[in-house]
Amino acid sequence: MSLKRLTVAVIVSVCAFAAFATAQKNEVSGIVGRTFISDQVITTSTFSDNKLHFGSGLTFEGNYARRVLDGALLSLSLEVPFVFSPDEDLHLHTNPVSADYRSFFVTPAARLNAFSASAVSPWVSVGGGFGYFRGSTAIPTNTRSTTTGVFQVGGGLDVRLIRKFSLRVEARDFWSGVPGLGVTTDQSRQHNLFVAAGVVWHF
Fold it and tell me: What CATH code is assigned to 3-202?
């Protein structure tokens, strides 16, 4: 099965599961943090420092989830995290302001919470979807836009605040293809590590 068909199958499955779920416990969250990406070696570079460096871009997440299974110890929710990084900087030591790009990730996922009825609830999340990269005008036009399949795995902690609101801290790794940057690097995929905190509204 191709990556595109697998992505479509994941999205359809999550939507169908949510539509027939009997639980009516929903949540919406707003999260703000940073995305960290490891350096990549430019294979065609002749400079001694041939690494492409990524900045730690300010990143935003909006997330809708519905709880579909609820137990005394564990609960299962289906979630759709949407993650947007508006300005991911790129540079070399020889050219500190070379280019930048923005990225979007949408990865429907299953999230397993422990002690979900208590004040403190740790969780893990696994899912997959797609990502989109759009480079600045400093990147050649023919490589400026890239769409890629994405695998997401993450974990975090929800701490109940008042009534229907919780504080969330989380880390998610979006394993994606590489953006089209106009250079050839030693990587065909990259880890986009998102570390953040925000507020969850339960309803």
Answer: 2.40.160.20
